[in-house]
Amino acid sequence: MSAQPQPYKVHPENERELARRLNRADADREPVVVEIAGSRYRLVPDDELRTTDDPAEDYDPARVLAAIDAGAGAFKGMDVEAFLAEISEAREQDTPGRLA
Prior knowledge:
This protein has one domain. By secondary structure, it is mainly alpha-helical. Strands 1-2 form a two-stranded antiparallel ribbon. It has helices at 12-28, 61-71, 80-92, and strands spanning 32-36, 39-43.
């Protein structure tokens, strides 16, 4: 396991903008994506970072089965043909950062 990274102090002016974006992302339950010199970085709260080399360390098969059971029937009554047509149409749209 590697050593924990040291925190980097942000300039107060930039800190306010970053804090505003982090607060909004936290409220929306989404990570913050920052672009610096053409590279994109995803910022997540420190407690969400995995600090182990074993990605299955906290795997709980009972929770996985419960999640599958909870989703059972979610698409019941759905117009499958319309759904598939919508997916196909969305795939044809030009998305920024993705080649059409």
